[in-house]
Amino acid sequence: MAISDDVSKNGSSEVVVRDMYLADLEAVMGIEAHSFPTPWSRNAFQTELLENTFATYLVLDFHGRVVAYGGMWIILDEAHITNVAVHPDYRGHHLGQQMMEGLMDRARALGVQRMTLEVRRGNAVAQNLYHKLGFVQLGVRRGYYTDTHEDAFIMWKDPL
């Protein structure tokens, strides 16, 4: 049985949203490498987890396996999504939505009033998800992604 078949069969109700720990970094780095042209380094994630007091990182845990992760910086009453990714074997099962909902729930619990993110102009799947969750595009950062010089759409959800 394929990994993704297991999620389909059992549903996302068996997927748990929890805090990211250093022990999760091997799995997170694998997801990161499969998801982004220029992945973050292990050291970048360690710094986020251990030193950045603004940072909150969560994972989706499916039977002990990290299948997705997401992070945000919380500054006053705003949250800025830093990254969200789902392991390729688990895509297409609404886990990106579950990860975003987990981040939004945590942000609300911490008193956040609004949330922002950047998304690549060419990432229509993510843009559709963010629109579905109530985000609206309010700007463009030209050439934002240094690896490809692709534009980023700035999206906001206000109120959260």
UniProtKB/TrEMBL annotation:
Q: InterPro entries attached here?
A: AcTrfase_RimI/Ard1, Acyl_CoA_acyltransferase, GNAT_dom, YpeA/RimI_acetyltransf
Family matches, as PROSITE patterns? GNAT
S-adenosyl-L-methionine as a keyword of this entry, yes or no, is no
Q: Does the record carry Transferase as a key word?
A: yes
- A GO molecular-function descriptor: N-acetyltransferase activity
Q: Which Gene3D superfamilies match?
A: 3.40.630.30
Which parts of the sequence belong to the N-acetyltransferase domain?
15-160
State one Pfam family annotation: Acetyltransf_1
Assigned keywords, A-Z: Acyltransferase, Cytoplasm, Transferase
Give start-end ranges for the coiled-coil region(s).
none
| Family listed | Belongs to the acetyltransferase family. RimI subfamily.
**Record PANTHER family:** ACETYLTRANSFERASE (PTHR43420), ACETYLTRANSFERASE YPEA (PTHR43420:SF44)
UniProt-recorded name of the protein:
Ribosomal-protein-alanine N-acetyltransferase
- Origin organism of this chain? Sulfobacillus benefaciens
| UniProt gene name | rimI
